[in-house]
Amino acid sequence: MEILAYGVQQDERPLLEQAFAQRHALRSLAVFLNRDTAPLAAGHPVVSSSVNDVLDAETLAVLAAGGTKLIAQRSTGFNNIDLDAAAELGLTVARVSYYSPYAVAEHAWALALAVNRRLTRAANRSREFDFRLDGLMGRDIHGMTVGVVGTGKIGECFARIAHGFGTTLLGWDIAPNPNCLELGMTYVEREDLLARSDLISLHVPLLPATHHLIDAEALATMKNDAILVNSSRGGLIDTAALVETLRSGRLSGVGLDVYEEETGLFFFDRSVEGIDDDVLARLMTFPQVLVTSHQAYFTRTAVGQIIDATVRNIHDFEAGHTNENTLVPKNTDT
Fold first, then answer.
1. Is the pLDDT of residue 333 over 70?
2. Which residues belong to any copy of the D-isomer specific 2-hydroxyacid dehydrogenase catalytic domain (predicted)?
């Protein structure tokens, strides 16, 4: 059986090919899956998708018509997949429910440290042999109050690193994490966390209840010199409201690995033609903003775990089994 994988990054390809070499043929495509590229999957019973693929009802219908039975998504997030449409079409859908939380937490801290100490500006200056310190003053992380919004596996890892810096920890979640409580974290209401924190990092999933969790009202609650980091999902932040907040001279640093309209932008080279997203373009003009292209997960360890889970999802599907990664089970009537 040949598996078709969409949205395969150059560094990811050899790991994928090695993982499938013993049992299945693998065809890797750099293009992303959408209604225009879905016909390429004709004749492939298994399609592996990436987080920036668009698996809407129309795309899924094309896949089903071409003989696809299983969609094995290589990510934890699945808000890009119309699960109801998949179920109606008899498509099984699986994701990767776990991979190294350290990868994302460490990248979130890399963003926080970089914007706090103005590392991008400093590096750009030094390349021009400009070694002045003007405008580069940061703050000690030690002694800060750090707010962790979402204290699951990744949030806990972020909190452990924060604890190592010697910070005061505040948390917000539907239920306290006992491991975070052991670190000395105090759970408070979201508004209290936003108002008291010097640094805020987002680690909740994107759900209807969390869409634009950080909106104009939430941003107004934050300290004028607060640092905001998002390595979870772009839709957690109302980007237009964030731009207005920055325009007013508030927030000393913003580190984003995700953006709510990143599909069609992130993972592509737009250096020649530029972009027509005025909100993102304006956001990136602020010197205290650092944007990376959804790479927090992109370590050898995490990608290896994602691939291993994807292989297991496919093998379990072949055997007629479900596992903890199954989002839409196999339709036994088809």
1. no
2. 8-326
